[in-house]
Amino acid sequence: MKPLQTSLLLALGASLTTSVLADTTGSGLLGKRYVEASAFINDYNNFDDNSYSVGTAINIPLTAHFDAGASLQHSWLEGDEGENFQDLAAYLTAYTTCGDFRPFARASLAYEWWHVSDDPFYQIDLGSEYLVTKRLSLSAQLSWSEFLATDWNGGAFSASGRANYWLTDTIAASAMLGCSEGGNWNYGIGTVFKF
Known about the structure:
- The chain is mainly beta.
- 7% of the residues lie in helices and 64% in strands.
- It has one helix and ten strands; from the N terminus they run αββββββββββ.
- A ten-stranded antiparallel barrel has the order 1-2-3-4-5-6-7-8-9-10.
- The longest helix is centred in the first third of the chain and has 13 residues, at 4-16.
């Protein structure tokens, strides 16, 4: 089985890392230089086993309205040590400010490798973040992901959300939730370190 939904959800989790504010004094992440560590549980609707993922990401501001970043995730299927795979992604995010909202658009190119095949894929995200307080922000996005390999036709839509809370001026905790076509869900947590 090709873990398309898992890859999509992992890419969402990583891209949500950057779906936040341009204001460096605000509670979001856009416009900030940081690294993140994250963990996910992926709950599939069409079979019994879940999968688990751990990952890291980095975000670097390029200009006032553009960020670039990269992420790496390792995932494994519950009860099957042979079903593990990795995703490496790079992305560019454009965003603007509309009051307390930060609309954004993101393009990601990624590569997945596992024991069956190695395939590139892309993802397009559209969403916005809302600044709730100086420490808390909420974000939501819709995404389209598709493998570029000829042996995997079609892509999938997904939706996701994130809450980000700054515990200190340099450390934040996040909770993520995502759902893709077919009723697959993922649940994640993350820790952000601003530098």
